[in-house]
Delta-aminolevulinic acid dehydratase
Amino acid sequence: MEMVKRPRRLRGSEVLRKMVRETRMDKSSLVYPIFVKEGRGIREEIPTMPGQYRYSVDTMEEKLEALADAGVGSVMFFGIPDHKDEVGSGAYDENGIVQKALRKAKEQFPDLYLITDVCMCEYTSHGHCGVLCGHDVDNDRTLDLLAKTALSHVEAGADMVAPSDMMDGRIRALRECLDAHHHYTTPIMSYAVKYASSFYGPFRDAAGSAPSFGDRKTYQMDYHNIREGIKEALLDEEEGADIIMVKPAMSFLDLVVKVKEAVHTPVAAYSVSGEYAMVKAAAKLGYVDEDKIVCEMAASAYRAGTDIYITYYAQELAKFMDEGRIG
Ligand code: PBG
């Protein structure tokens, strides 16, 4: 048979397959999200996210150490406060849970890169991502509080802030506030392309942040839309975002591709709690091979163009990369 082009020629051995591999990954691009809560001696497994825990400030050390040992250099903090109120004051309290965790983490692990999620839903009694006006979030009043939150994180030791609230104009508000306090060099990673998604279900259990009424559809995007996602990405880049995030990851990789073409910043993809929970559940039932699925999900996010991968599997992935199972 006359056939000049035989694609299988390049698949003949592991050495060759690795030589021609198109997507290469590195541990330095992994970010691990961690939940910290008030109290002492707490290491509570999250029922909907087996293998993930809520740590108190004194116990998070063991996890941070394990991450650092595995070569995961960046962590993103989520706080679970003791008290919530209408205006989410725990978010910008200098003795708030995230602020305390940051001070401790900075002291114990000066080389670890500390990112914070900037949002109000974990701190408001109604569970929405800002202050309310009637039954909707008041965009412009929320901006001041988000900026205050970001500033208090940076002053407590955050190396980077990541607003996830989806208010209009928040990148500009944060940038102006940080700059006014001489934090010109602190980068902002914007959750710019964030959809109203059921994939956040387990997270809301973990953080106790489900909205007490309604949903987040007046601020997070409709998942039928792609042009709107690009619009958000471009707006946030213009307002000064240093990194643009797409969230969730797995079902939104088309957005990663498009956003990567549209912006000039690095792109991040967040493989969210629902993705983690689905893999865990299917693996527990023996329906899938957890390690292999996790590698494939990560590789597809990088293949789509993500530069940074935020995942609850960061520590495992670092190990798989060391072992040459992916990368
Ligand atoms: C806060 C926030 C959420 C997530 C990250 N930041 C929840 C939400 O928007 O409802 C979700 C992360 C995950 O599901 O892993 N707004």
Observations:
- The pocket of PBG is lined by residues 117, 119, 121, 129, 164, 200, 203-204, 272-273 (CB under 6 Å).
